[in-house]
Amino acid sequence: MNYILYLLFVTVLPVLIGCLTVSDGDGKPYTVISRWCAGFVSMLALTYIPAAACIFFHRSLTDLIVVLTLVYAAAGAAGAVKLVKNRENPVKSFFTMIRTGNLFELLAFVLPAIHAAVTFFMMHVDDDDVAYVGAVTTSVDTNTLMKYDAVNGRLITDFAVNEMDRLTASPQFAFYAYVSKVFSIRPAVLCHTFFPPVLTMLFFAAFLLVGRELYPEDRKKSGLFSVFAFLISISSYFSVYTAGTFILVRSWQGKAQIVGLILPLIFVLAMRVIRRGASLPVDTLYGFVLLGAASLLTSMGAVLACLELGVLFVVASFMRKDRMILVRMLPAYILPAVMLIIYFVVL
């Protein structure tokens, strides 16, 4: 039963939450996919402030679970209300997309699905897990958040030791700890077995959306773009530091999710604004959750995401000769600013 609930948590709930940032018109013909990606990053962004607050006010993991459950439930309910109000049927939309699909879109699904199965049945162990997955395990087993050093098990007196400051400023471990505890899945199993298939499909769904923005009138080319992105990725293991290696082998780490999900979706957002010729409040909200999710995942990745968003929206402002396109996106930098304050001032 826990596994079924987990499956609903990573599929249905993100689609509902994604309705708040992606309209039916902006997402077509991949409305459900677009909302799934947007909803997942929204869940990450919604985790940041509760996680940071619980860490600095020395609250337990149980307290974080209560707060996040209420936050996720409220966001999902708001998305469901929007669906009902707009008389949208996501199930019908999904099957319409399938029915009208083409061979390249099918390949764009099948190829990542094969790798997703590989990530489920096989496992890659990475040295960074001693801190990252270790922090999740420590939180779950002690019902605390960043009280004990995940590397040596001692009480934390200096966050700079063993780079606990990086985990505190970007507390992705808190999200994993929430999922692990709520669905009774051990942290290592969650990070190495249950999340990688989901993340693999999310990554290449994001690339499909990039293809859709590059070729808005040709679904075959959109699918082909995602297929080539996959082929390039599986040819990337000439170094452990390539983007392809991260998204295929180390997907549970924040750096991989920056490369495979956040950066492509920022490009999708910018292209959407350029095509529309104006920036709407929902675009600001989407930018806010993208940079908020990046802040939760990794501090260095968040800086890269901020730079990409800034550059693309400067370009968009010049292309459309409207400086307000850039100005309206400035609130998206609130959570990265909080992260930098935590990292450089508080810790």
Distance between the termini: 41 Å
Helical amount among residues, as a percent range? over 70%
Q: What is the overall pLDDT average?
A: 92
Which shape, going by the Cα principal axes? globular
Q: What's the number of extended β-strand segments?
A: 0
Order of helices and strands: HHHHHHHHHHHHHHHHHH
Count of individual domains? 1
Extract low-pLDDT stretches: none
The main sheet comes to: none
Number of helices: 18
Classification by helices and strands: mainly alpha
Report the sheet-strand fraction: under 5%
From the alpha carbons, calculate the radius of gyration and give it in angstroms: 19 Å
Task: Describe this protein with a few key phrases.
mainly alpha, globular
Write the layout of secondary structure elements.
Elements: H1 2-10, H2 12-18, H3 24-27, H4 31-56, H5 61-85, H6 90-99, H7 103-121, H8 132-142, H9 164-169, H10 172-182, H11 187-214, H12 219-234, H13 243-249, H14 254-276, H15 281-297, H16 299-320, H17 324-327, H18 334-346
Helix pairs in contact: 2-4, 2-5, 4-5, 4-11, 4-15, 5-10, 7-11, 7-12, 8-10, 11-12, 11-14, 12-13, 13-14, 14-15, 14-16, 15-16, 15-18, 16-18
Q: Can you characterise this structure?
A:
With 347 residues, the protein is mainly α. Helices cover 74% and strands 0% of the residues. The protein has helices at 2-10, 12-18, 24-27, 31-56, 61-85, 90-99, 103-121, 132-142, 164-169, 172-182, 187-214, 219-234, 243-249, 254-276, 281-297, 299-320, 324-327, 334-346. α7 runs antiparallel to α11 (187-214) and α13 (243-249) packs across α14 (254-276). The longest helix is centred in the middle third of the chain and has 28 residues, at 187-214. The N and C termini lie far apart (41 Å).
